[in-house]
Amino acid sequence: MKKLGFTLVEIMIVVAIIGLLAAIAIPSFVKARNTAQQNACINNLRMIDSGKEQAALAERWGDTDQAVTTIVNQYIKGNTTPVCPAGGSYTYGRMNQNPRCNFSGATTHRLPVG
Fold first, then answer.
1. Do residues 103 and 88 make contact, with C-beta atoms less than 8 angstroms apart?
2. Structural domain tally of the chain?
3. In a domain, 41, yes or no
4. What is the pLDDT of residues 46-93, one digit of tens each?
5. Is residue 110 helix, strand or coil?
6. What range defines the domain where residue 36 resides?
7. Alpha-carbon separation of residue 90 from 47, 71, 85 (angstroms)
8. Domain presence at residue 50
9. According to the model, what pLDDT value does residue 97 have?
10. Helix H or strand E segment including 26
11. Confidence (pLDDT) at 112
12. Does residue 1 lie in a domain region?
């Protein structure tokens, strides 16, 4: 008489292999997601900075003037403040400052200096 089905040991080996693959893959996916969010946020900060520069030329703002969000947004695609994909919010700041994201996590969302 032939026995059909899998033994408990065979099932446990398959479950262990799946668990091992998940343990290897999940941290990589989390890191990739965090890197993608950071890069998207930095690109948003670049758009805001570019909008600030264009608004400063049009409105004749000086270095120490505060950037007016509604005016700067006219120079940003969609005429609105971009949204940080990680849930942070943006501060435009003065004209001589880089815009900032208030997200505080494992990665920083800042424009590179220089």
1. yes
2. 1
3. yes
4. 999 999 999 999 999 999 999 999 999 999 999 999 999 999 999 999
5. coil
6. 12-101
7. 12, 15, 11
8. yes
9. 92
10. helix 8-59
11. 80
12. no
